[in-house]
Write a structure and sequence with these properties.
Blueprint: H1 4-29, H2 35-40, H3 47-74, H4 76-108, H5 113-120, H6 124-133, H7 138-156, H8 160-175, H9 180-203, H10 212-223, H11 241-254, H12 259-262, H13 274-289, H14 294-301, E1 306-307, E2 310-311, H15 317-325, H16 330-371, H17 378-405, H18 411-435, H19 442-469, H20 477-480, H21 487-517
Antiparallel strand pairs: 1-2
Helix pairs in contact: 1-9, 1-16, 3-4, 3-7, 3-9, 3-13, 3-14, 3-16, 4-11, 4-13, 4-18, 5-6, 6-16, 7-8, 7-15, 7-16, 7-17, 7-18, 8-17, 9-16, 11-21, 14-15, 15-16, 16-17, 18-19, 18-21, 19-21
């Protein structure tokens, strides 16, 4: 439970933070005259600012709140997965894909990922398909809303549903006006706060290392020996090296294929700014991803994962850790408030990017192709974009309430299932579109459909057969049984199978093209 000092301090913090954000939102809104301005901005941003905006968009509340909570439950195996192999693959993929994506994006004059794919393959239907598929990203919005609600409800000793409603009204409300012009500024402030908080959190457990690294791991082993193992057979995410290394490497490489991440490079106005943009993003990302280690501090703080005899929910562990760790003395409380601000920033930064990119996709890639003949002005599209944001707010609120009241291990499972399905489908059209010049549209389309079907078949179809009809799929049965499963398994399988199918289709269609040329 938060102390009265923490509650009062948090209120002052929230009010100050809200005023600061609204200042930049108003500043950005005054420069937003069209949907294109809302999507990619019309301001010549510093590449370092855009790099920080990218870093915070990639990080989110998952890295600062949700994933450390899972590591608190399952131990060091989670650090290997979320703190080493996933980040390494993500950063390498980001550097490789971003430069080429931006070059194509500039030449195609695309402002959304769905639009990029549609123009690259000269197919409005493909763009429309990717536009509708983007609704899966609502699950990520829900993850962030739940994480923010957990942080603020604990810091204010307030009702979770009431806090959720306030967050949605405020954030979705100001995102109706801000767009890219304000997003980069607010993200930069959030990134600076998050960098400070990342170091504070990482050093918050220094006392656990008084007897060295061995002493630290001995404390974890005393709670449960499996917490220091490189694998955790008891978990649903880190059971073996296949899940920890191979699956996370594949997923990490594909995760950048999300609209609020890969389209950030389109904010840059000059090609020479790309290297500085990427350098800033990568350095910040390395620091952010390191925060998951704090989950181990939290487990030592709450050995039995309870507070005052009440079991902690996975998504609330880090919030409880912050409240308890920074509650003794005025200076500690002030530092704790800064940490809370950082956790809020981690959520808002990605939430803003998701709302901005998803609403733009709905407006430009769904509404415009279907009803564009009846819509004549930029102002009309901006109004439609605001309606899209209201729609997203309502849907997100309904799903978030269910996740708060009826969580299955963690909201991360819901979010991963939706987001992973999205970028599994988007991966091949982006990679093929970047690296293969002459390609028949059949290859990426068939690969996308294959990825979609494979992901949901492995996550829902095969487990249904295992759990209801005792069908034996051999070694992979352990990934399919039980009420909670690892979405990364379905995603990695979808990416591998769709890649193979895409390559085969490309070879077949390439031969047909060469024969027709002969």
């Amino acid at each position: 439970m938060a102390t009265s000092q923490q509650i009062i301090g948090t209120w002052f913090l929230i009010i100050f933070y809200a005023i600061l954000i609204l200042y930049f939102v108003i500043k950005g809104a005054l420069k937003t005259k069209s949907l294109s301005d809302y999507a990619v901005g019309n301001v010549n941003f510093s590449p370092s600012f855009v790099g920080l905006s990218l870093a915070v968009s990639m990080t989110s509340a998952a890295t600062f709140i949700v994933n450390p909570g899972l590591i608190a439950v399952y131990g060091f195996s989670g650090v290997l997965s979320f703190g080493i192999f996933f980040p390494l693959a993500t950063i390498i993929s980001l550097v490789v894909l971003t430069k080429s994506f931006r070059k194509h994006g500039q030449s195609l004059k695309a402002v959304t990922l769905a639009q990029w794919i549609g123009k690259r393959y000269n197919s409005k239907y493909y763009a429309l398909f990717m536009g509708f598929l983007s609704f899966l990203l609502i699950t990520f919005i829900v993850l962030i809303l739940v994480a923010l609600t957990k942080v603020l409800s604990k810091a204010l000793n307030a009702n979770e549903i009431a806090i959720l409603a306030v967050i949605i009204v405020f954030v979705f409300g100001y995102m109706m006006f801000g767009g890219a012009n304000s997003l980069v500024y607010t993200n930069t402030i959030q990134a600076i706060v998050m960098l400070v908080v990342a170091f504070v959190l990482l050093f918050s457990g220094y006392e656990h290392f008084k007897e060295g690294i061995d002493g630290f791991f001995q404390k974890l082993a005393a709670i449960d020996p499996v917490l220091i193992k490189s694998t955790n057979p008891k978990s649903v995410l880190f059971r073996d090296f296949f899940e920890i290394i191979i699956v996370q490497t594949i997923v990490g490489a594909a995760v950048v294929c999300q609209p609020h991440i890969i389209t950030k490079s389109l904010f840059l106005k000059d090609e020479k700014d790309v290297n500085r943009f990427l350098t800033t993003a990568v350095i910040a990302e390395i620091i952010f991803f390191s925060v998951v280690f704090v989950g181990l501090y939290a487990r030592i703080t709450f050995p039995d994962l309870t507070v005052n005899g009440e079991a902690l929910k996975t998504d609330g562990i880090i919030s409880a850790f912050v409240i308890k760790t920074f509650s003794n003395g005025a200076l500690s409380v002030i530092i704790g408030l800064v940490v809370i601000l950082g956790l809020i920033s981690a959520g808002l930064s990605t939430l803003e990017g998701l709302i901005q990119s998803l609403s733009t996709t709905i407006t430009s890639d769904i509404i415009k192709p279907l009803f564009g003949s009846k819509i004549k002005t930029d102002k009309a599209y901006i109004r439609i974009n605001k309606i899209a944001i209201i729609f997203l707010a309502i849907i997100s609120f309904i799903i978030s309430i269910d996740q708060l009241l009826n969580p299955k291990l963690s909201v991360a499972i819901l979010a991963q299932n939706g987001v992973y399905a999205y970028f599994s489908v988007a991966f091949i059209p982006i990679v093929f579109g970047i690296f293969i010049k002459n390609i028949n549209i059949k290859a990426p389309v068939v690969a996308s459909i294959t990825a979609f079907v494979t992901h949901f078949t492995i996550y829902y179809g095969l487990p249904y057969l295992v759990n209801n009809f005792s069908v034996d799929f051999g070694y992979i049965n352990k990934y399919l049984s039980g009420p909670v499963r690892n979405p990364a398994i379905a995603s990695a399988s979808a990416i591998i199978i769709s890649t193979i199918v895409g390559i085969i289709m490309h070879q077949l269609t390439k031969k047909k093209i060469s024969h027709s040329n002969d």
